[in-house]
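Appendix B.2, paired examples.
Example (i):
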Amino acid sequence: MRKKELDIIGGTDNGGKHTYQFYEDWDSRPAGRGTGNREKSRRTAGNARGGAGQRNGGQNSDAEPGSARRGNRAQETGGQKGRRQKGRRKKKSLLKKLFVTAAVLLLALGAGLYLLTGLAYGKMNYSEIPAFSGKPLQEDGVIHILLIGNDSRENGEDGRSDAMILLSVSRKTKSIYMTSLLRDMYVDIPGHEGNRLNAAYSFGGPELLMKTVEKNLDIPVHRYIQVNFEAFAGLVDAVDGVDLELSTEEIEYVNGYLVEYNMLTNRPQGTDNMDPSLSGMVHLNGPQALAYCRNRYLGTDFGRTQRQRKVLSEVIRKLPKALLLNGTELADSLLPNLTTNLTKGECFRLGLKAAKFLTYDLVSDNIPQKGTYSDATIRGMAVLEVDFEENRKYLREKIYGEEAAR
C-alpha cells in the first residue's frame, strides 16, 4: 500500500501545531507528538501495513478464486500428466512383454520345425551333385525343382524317367507351376547326340537330365526330387487317396496296369481291381492312382502327363491336413523312397515358407505347347520335333511374368 505523507506546518515551535502523517487508507487523525511520536507513528504505520498485508492476503485468498482455480487446475493437470505417463509406461511394458513372448514363440516354433526337418531329412536319401552345390536355391525370384518319377522298383537311378515335372515356385507371379515335360521331345543332350528327353536320364541320371532341361528350355534348374513307384503310391495313400472322375475305359486300363504292379510287389492278382461300372467320380488309393498315371494309351503322352498332374494337384491340396493328422505315416511311406540333392538347410527354408506357398495359385501345364511341335521320325525313333524358342518365351512369360516380345 502506498504511503502518502502530508505535513501541515504551522510550526511546532512557534504555533504549537503538530505535523500529521496521512495514509491513503487511514482516517485523518493525529499520530502522536514530537520525535517520539513520529517514531511511534512509523511503527504504528509499519504494523498497520503488516496488518493490511495480512488482511489483503486473506482477501486475496477469498476474493480471488480465479488464482486458486488456476492453482487447482495446475495441480490437476500435473496429476493427469502423471497418470498419462504411468499409462504410457504400462502400455510400453505390455507391448514389450508381448514382443518378447512372440519372439520366444517364434524361436520355439523355428526350433521345432528345424528338429522335425532334421528327423524327416534323416529318412530321405541325399545325393550330392557337386556341379550344382554352389548354385542358389532361388534365382530371379523363382525356385525350380525337377520332379522325377522313375519306373524303378528300388531306390536309385536305374530304370527310365517315367515322369518329369518342372515345379516352379514363382514369387513374381505368386504361383506354383507344374509343367510336365514330355519325354518324347527330341532334345540336345550335353555330351551326347540328340535324343528323346528321357534318354538324358538313362545316360547320366538327374544331373544330365537337369543340364538337358536348362540347355533346351533356358530354365536354371539345379535341384531335383526323385521318387519311385512305391513312393508315389505311398504318398497317395498317406493323404487318404484322391477323388477323380474316370471313364469306364480309364478304369479298365487301371486294372490292366495293376497286373504288373501286383506282380512286382508280390501281391495277389486282382488286388485293388476296380469295377468299370462305377465310372464317374471315384476314389483311388495309392496303387490305383499310380496305375491311372502310367496309362499312355489314352490321349498319348499328353493325356498321361495330364493325369499325373491331376493326381499331384489333389495330393498337394490334401497334404497340409495329412501332415497334421497322419504325418508319421506320410514320412514313413514317402521319405525312404525319395532321393534329392536338396540340403537340410534348404529343406528347412522351404518349410518356413510353406504356409506362404499355400496361398499361391496352383497352375498345371505342359511343354511343348500346342502348335509348337510336330511328329517326326529321327534315326528310327518316333519323336516330337519342338520349336524351343517359342516354348522358352512361353515359360518366361508364365513363370517370370515377362511379356513376350512382339
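Example (ii):
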Amino acid sequence: MKLLCDRTALLDAINTVSGVVAQRTPKQQLTCVHLQAQSEGELVLSGTDAEISLRLRLDRVEVQEPGEALVPADKLRQIVSAEDGDATLTLESDADTLLIKGADAQFKVIGPPAGEFPTIPDESAANGAKDAFEQPLGSLERLISRTIFAKARDNSRYAINGVLLRRQGKKLEFVATDGRRLAVARATLPKADKDDPTTACIVPPKALSTLQKLADDPDELVRIAITDNQIVFILGGDSPRAVLASNLVEGTFPPYEDVIPKDQDKIVVLDRDVLSSAVRRAALLTSEETRGVKLSFNPGEKQLTIESRAPEMGEAKITIDVAEYKGDAIEIGFNPTFILDALKILEQTRVTLELKGPNMPGLFKDDDGFLYVVMPVNLQ
C-alpha cells in the first residue's frame, strides 16, 4: 500500500474511527485502525471493539498502490497529529509495518497482520434487515441530543442504559430514562408510509454519540437498517462515506407511555433563557443533601419564584415573570440539574411546563415534538 493524503482530513477521520476501537482488550487487532487503500482512489478507515464498528471512506487521497495495514490507533493518531507542519503525508505499508512520511520526518509503526482484522458490516447489511428506512442526518442528531442525556448510568439497569428507537409508520421516536426523568423526541420519516410496520430497539449510547460525530450535512439522508441483534446507519447514498453498525442492547424498555402525564391542570409558558438563568443561579446555594430548588407559581401576578437553601451556606430567592399561567398556585421541588439539562438542548425559546400537584411529575414540552417528564424532589 502506498498513498498520499491530506493530513487534516486524515486526522479527522482517525479521530472519529479511534472513538470506536477498544481501549483495553487482549485482542490487539481491536485496538487498531484498519487502513485499506482502494484502486478507485479512496482510503477506507475501519475500527471496532466487537460491539460497535465504523467504516469511514476518505476521498482526499492519491492512491499509488492499493493495499491494507492494521495500525495501533493511539500511535497513528499521535503521529498524524504531531506532524502539524505538513499539509500532506505519505503512507506506505510493507507486511506488518506502516511507514508514515512527512517533509522532514518518518515513522515506522508495527501492527498486527491486516488479515487479523475482523469482518465488519458494510452497506450490504441493509439487505437482510427486518426493517429499513431513511431520515436526514440533522433530524437524527437532534433526536439523539434531546434524549441521550437522560439515559441511565447505573450498569445494573442495563435496558435503560441505552436509548429506545421506535419506528411506527411515518413516526420516529427516541426515548431515554434513568427512572427519575424521561425524555421523548419525535420526528416524521419523509419517505415512509403510515402503514409501515412498528419496529423498536434499544441502541447503545456509544453508537449514537459516534453518529453525532459524523454529522456534517444536516440534509444528508441516513439509511437505518435494523436486524434481530444489530442496527446499521449508512451515510452517503449508493457509495456511502460511512457505515456505523452496533449490537443492540438486550432487555425490555419500560412502558414509558404510561409515565407521561395526561391530566395536568396547571400550565405555565416560560422563556427558556430566563428560566435557565434563574435555575442556574438558584442552584448555586444547594448542597448534596438539599439537591433541589423550590418553584412557587403565583398565577395572580404571573410570576415564578425559585428558592434554594443549603445548611451553613445560605439561601437564594429569584423571581421571574411567566408569559402565561393557567391553574391554581402550586409549590414543587425539582433537581436543578435535570431542568438545566433539558433547557440547554431546546432550540425554541418558548417552553411549556405542565403540573398537577407537588408530589406529581412535571412535564416540560416545546412545539417541536419534545416531551420531558421530571419527578419532583422532597425539600423538607
